[in-house]
Design goal:
390 residues, alpha/beta, seven-stranded parallel beta sheet, 2 domains, 16 helices, Rossmann fold
């Protein structure tokens, strides 16, 4: 079996458990190449607007290397030229023929690897996120140029690792052969979150956070930025006009002041919590008390992994139609609902429906979530990659 090489911009909390599983439990030869260490020691996240240092181990249990970044403006937040790691040539030259998985084409280093990895006898795999339906929401002239260039790039790639149905449609649209497509879903550490879900006491956690036990909780988890459209949810919550419902918005970002002003305007401050940045070790407390999870994002939300996290706690989903995972994770009326992005009236309506889920509805939700989580899992990724390593 060929070794696995993952090329990624920086350590990401959603990916590192996968690498640990591949190396420690599946006993597969593995090397992870990082282009930046910004997330390891903590740095200002420009979208959260605060210093972020994840409190879960990002580098334990698997081999990795950091390449020197030669960018004139080095940062994962500085676009394509923010990562320029010339050492990737030497690294690919020194490694034996491997299966190299490159996460997207958004940085110079990633594009270099995609173009030249074959020269060093590696099998090249692209794992990007782009959902097809979002492409049609962008400038058609820019997209035409982008698609033309991608078709040229795609001739250098052996396999395309799609994360969900809309991402697969994107590759189909650009003419990728079906036998080059592999399902490697976007997912989270289901074992970690499901274990926390089983051990959580909902009533005690509500008391800790300061919410009456008999109140129903609507949960948002994400940055307070335009892409996430948090103001839509505040508007819908106000329109819901349910005195027994509580809104918790986990996160932070540049829209916080506008959100606070809107909350004051609606006079709902006593039933809304803006938490600020919440780290991985305690975010489960919010999923555990939620009665519905909402993601109202617009263009740019290519998946939405917070939805996967919420599913491990049996929480029904309400996702906007633009959210990349909406067609994969929501079985309409079974484990939640979708709504047209930006339509406050429809968002309010599906929130009301979901909050009225009874015991039977919630049992059906949990069963459906569990079936989906078995599919959207690290094991699915590993099993897919194994089919092309011989």
């Amino acid at each position: 079996m060929k070794p696995f090489i993952f090329l990624n911009s920086h350590p990401i909390q959603y990916f590192t458990p996968l690498y640990k599983l591949i190396y420690s439990e599946k006993k597969i030869d593995l090397n992870v190449i990082y282009c930046s260490d910004e997330t390891v020691n903590g740095s200002i996240d420009k979208e959260f607007g605060v210093t972020v240092k994840w409190d879960t181990p990002l580098l334990d249990g698997y081999p990795y290397v950091f390449l020197k970044n030669h960018s004139f403006k080095p940062s994962i937040f500085n676009g394509f030229w923010g990562l320029l790691n010339w050492g990737v040539f030497k690294k690919l030259f020194n490694e034996p023929p491997s299966l190299i998985i490159v996460h997207g084409w958004g940085y110079a280093t990633h594009l270099i690897a995609l173009i030249f990895a074959r020269m060093f006898n590696h099998t090249v795999c692209l794992r990007a996120e782009t959902p097809l339906h979002q492409e049609f929401l962008k400038n058609k002239y820019v997209i035409s140029i982008k698609h033309f260039l991608l078709k040229k790039l795609f001739t250098r790639i052996d396999y395309f690792l799609y994360i969900g149905s809309e991402n697969k449609k994107f590759y189909n649209y650009l003419g990728v052969n079906e036998n080059q497509l592999l399902f490697t879903p976007y997912c989270v550490d289901n074992k970690f979150f499901s274990t926390l879900a089983k051990s959580s006491n909902k009533d005690k956690l509500k008391h800790k956070i300061g919410i009456p036990i008999d109140f129903k909780v609507i949960l948002y988890a994400g940055k307070y930025i335009d892409k996430k459209r948090p103001l839509d949810l505040i508007n819908a919550f106000a329109a819901l006009n349910d005195p027994s419902a509580f809104l918790i918005m986990v996160g932070d970002g540049k829209l916080r002041e506008a959100m606070e002003e809107l909350i004051l305007t609606y006079q709902i401050k006593d039933r809304v919590i803006l938490t600020g940045f919440i780290n991985q070790s305690i975010i489960y407390e919010y999923y555990a008390i939620a009665d519905v999870f909402v993601m109202c994002s617009g263009l740019g939300e290519t998946w939405g992994l917070s939805a996967n996290e919420a599913m491990n706690f049996g929480v029904p989903l309400v996702l906007s139609s633009t959210t990349g995972s909406s067609s994969d994770l929501v079985i309409e009326g079974v484990n939640g609902f979708t709504f047209p992005t930006g339509n406050i009236h429809q968002l309010t309506a599906v929130l009301n429906k979901t909050l009225q889920f009874n015991i039977v509805d919630r049992a059906r939700t949990i069963e459906t979530h569990n079936q989906l989580l078995n599919k959207y899992s690290y094991n699915t990724i590993i099993n897919s990659l194994k089919t092309i390593t011989n």
